[in-house]
Design brief:
With about 290 residues, the protein is an alpha/beta fold. It is built from 10 helices and 14 strands. A hairpin with a 4-residue loop joins strand 1 and strand 2. About 35% of the residues are buried.
C-alpha cells in the first residue's frame, strides 16, 4: 500500500508543551482517527501536516516529497476543517461558494450546491444565524467540493446530532473509495472513529502512545478480570494497564487469544478503542 503522508521525528516545542518526535506512515486509501485529550497535540499535529507551523525537528512528506519542497499550490488538493475557524459571520453560503469558485481551480459548484441541499443549508442565510452544527456542515460542504485528495477534519463531528454525524461518517467512507484519497479525522467521539477509521493514532501529552490498525486493536486487545493471584501469573510483557480493586484486578492485555489459551479459567472481555485509551492513561503501570 502506497504511503500518502510520512511523518518522521516531528517535533514542535512551545513554552509549556512539546509535540514530541512523532513518527508514522499514513497509507493512501484509508482513514486515520486521531484521538487524545484536550491539549494532547492533535491540532498541533494537523497544523504541522498542513505546514502551518515551523517544525523544530523532523520532516513531513506527502507522496514522498517533503512538504517544504512542494509547489506553493499543493493545498488546493486538501480539504480542511480546523476547530475554531469559521467563515465571516456576515457572509452567506451563496457568497462563500462564489469566493471558493475563484479560489479553487477545481471547484465544483454543482457538488457544493448538492451538499447545501443535502445538509439543508439555506444559501441566502448569513453565517451568523447558523447554529454550531450548521456552521460545521457548511465547512464540510466546502471541503468536499473542490476535488480534494486529502481531507483533514479537526473535531468535525463535535456538536452535531447523531444522525448528522452518521451522515458525515458516510461521506468519509464514500471519499476514500478512491484509493488515491486519504482522510485524517480527530475526534473526542471514539465510537465515531470505531465506525470508519482504518488506523487509530493516540496522542497523550504530546507523545504518540500508539498508532495501530483499528481491526488489530479490536482483535488482539482484551480486558482480563482476575484475582491478584492470577494477575501475578500473567506475562507482564502482555499487560498494558491495570485497575486494581480490593478483591480483583481488571487488566488490559495485548494478546487475548494467547491469554485465553494459557489461562482458560480467566474471564476475558473484548476491549474497545476507548478501553485501550483509558487503561493506557489511567491504568497503573507494571
Amino acid at each position: 500500500m502506497d504511503t500518502a503522508i510520512r511523518l518522521h521525528n516531528v517535533t514542535k516545542n512551545y513554552e509549556s508543551f512539546t509535540l514530541d518526535h512523532i513518527t508514522m506512515d499514513i497509507p493512501k486509501g484509508c482513514i486515520v482517527g486521531l484521538v487524545g485529550e484536550n491539549g494532547a497535540g492533535k491540532t498541533t499535529l494537523l497544523k504541522a501536516i498542513l505546514d502551518m507551523i515551523h517544525l523544530d525537528e523532523g520532516q513531513i512528506s506527502l507522496d514522498g516529497v517533503p512538504v517544504s519542497r512542494l509547489s506553493y499550490d499543493w493545498k488546493k488538493e486538501v480539504g480542511v476543517i480546523l476547530s475554531g475557524l469559521d467563515f465571516a459571520a456576515s457572509m452567506n453560503a451563496r457568497e462563500i461558494g462564489n469566493i471558493m469558485a475563484g479560489t479553487y481551480e477545481n471547484w465544483q459548484q454543482n457538488v457544493y450546491e448538492a451538499y447545501l441541499q443535502r445538509f439543508k443549508i439555506e444559501p441566502g442565510k448569513t453565517v451568523q444565524k447558523y447554529s454550531k452544527g450548521m456552521k460545521m456542515k457548511l465547512n464540510i460542504a466546502v471541503a468536499l467540493s473542490h476535488q480534494a485528495k486529502l481531507l483533514i477534519f479537526d473535531e468535525a463531528t463535535s456538536g452535531l446530532d447523531p444522525i448528522v454525524r452518521d451522515d458525515i461518517l458516510d461521506l468519509l467512507l464514500e471519499f476514500i473509495q478512491d484509493e488515491e484519497h486519504t482522510a485524517i479525522i480527530s475526534s473526542h467521539i471514539v465510537t465515531d472513529l470505531e465506525k470508519v477509521a482504518d488506523y487509530i493514532a493516540f496522542l497523550h501529552e504530546g507523545k504518540l502512545k500508539f498508532y495501530m490498525n483499528k481491526d488489530e486493536i479490536l482483535y488482539h486487545y482484551g480486558v482480563v478480570r482476575c484475582s491478584p493471584q492470577q494477575y501475578q501469573k500473567l506475562p507482564k510483557e502482555l499487560v498494558k494497564g491495570v485497575r486494581k480493586g480490593n478483591f480483583s484486578y481488571d487488566v488490559l492485555i495485548s494478546a487475548k487469544q494467547k491469554i485465553h489459551q494459557s489461562f482458560p479459567e480467566i474471564a476475558i472481555d473484548n476491549a474497545g478503542i476507548e478501553d485501550v485509551i483509558l487503561y493506557l492513561v489511567k491504568g497503573e503501570r507494571v
